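Posted in: Structural Biology > Protein-Ligand Complexes

Title: Requesting predicted complex, pyridoxal-5'-phosphate in pocket

I'd be grateful if someone could produce the 3D structure tokens for the following input. Sequence and ligand are given below.
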Amino acid sequence: MAAYAEMSREELTTLRNSLLEEYESFKAQGLKLDMSRGKPGADQLDISNDLLTMVTSIEESKINGTDTRNYGGLDGLPEMKKIFADMLGVDTNEVIVGGNSSLNMMYDTVARAMLFGIMGSTPWSKLEKVKFLCPVPGYDRHFTICQTFGIEMIPVEMNADGPDMDVVEKLVSEDSAIKGIWCVPKYSNPGGITYSDDVVCRFANLKPAAEDFRIFWDNAYVVHDLYDVSDPLLNILDECRKAGNEDMCYIFASTSKVTFPGAGVAVMAGSASNMEATRKLMTFQTIGPDKVNQLRHIRFLKDLDGVRAHMKKHAAIIRPKFEIVLNTLEKELAGIGIAEWHKPNGGYFVSLDVYPGCAKKVHALLKDAGVVMTGAGATFPYGNDPKDRNLRIAPTFPTVSELEIAVKMLCLCVKLTAVEKILEK
Ligand SMILES: Cc1ncc(COP(=O)(O)O)c(C=O)c1O
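-- Reply #1 --
Done. Output follows.
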């Protein structure tokens, strides 16, 4: 099919009428499909069911002399620290194991900085203004953390290999109110982009105006490959150390999408001094995390090889779903000049940029026809996508047959809104 921009008004009108007819017949089917949140499907949860029987007796609740039922172990069981340290390529004294949510650890990290500052700096809440850089499109819940604390968000464009580092370097070095940046460096949410070596090195070599500037390196998809070959990602802590900036990054991850999102284990990591400062403040927050659940994970996953073998099972389940999305986008939308997307090698999302000014309309049309997607704009700070282009597709939760219909429907709405927009001109 020809690019829409090259079609005559007459051709576009005919096309619009036939797309509209197709849309109405889909709508009449009364669909009820959900592509909104990046949740594992029930079949993915089922591959971790053995976790539930890993600790069933008093004897099984002990490991190397520790009774996991009791208080203590502020920063996690050593065996759980080892699994996470290997996963993130850091030392065990550079990790703190938390509860079940890395997002919670990110929130707490920002909250501690607001209340107490970082390593002796002025508490952020006492400053006139605190700003974070937010690569866009990005993860909505990072943005809502900032919003909750009144932190001003500055969007930074994502390139094909990570955030636009010219902009990041300039802003971070010039403005001491900029205290952080959110990064999802591997299989980013939602773009599925992995940061290049150059981008990671430029991050590590930043020269922030703020002494307490931190990179919030949310490595949520560190082991979440769809294929046998993983996108390579440089180790941010190593690179920061080489650059003499070892305290500049906080790293986060979890087993939410390895085992159970509702009952996984989360981690934060960073330089030994960052972790020491964090532990000191955590002492007043908790006597210790859920060690029984850590022990379940230690027994179930065993080590990094165990994690990788388990992730292959996830990949086998979700790869066909990603392929349905990508093949349908290719078949329906390639070559007509109205949409762009990136083929991710891992993670949980496909990010779709539709014709400018159409994302909200696509979302609304889909909703009217019974297909729920993440709200248009959610991938931008304050829900404001200035070009109204980006939509996030989350392929994992629907079944294969539901997904087939939902993505077809999505493509139909993308085409219909684009034709209408072009005809408006
Ligand atoms: C980038 C990113 N970080 C964090 C999370 C949530 O992690 P957790 O379940 O460990 O809180 C998600 C979930 O979708 C995510 O996409």
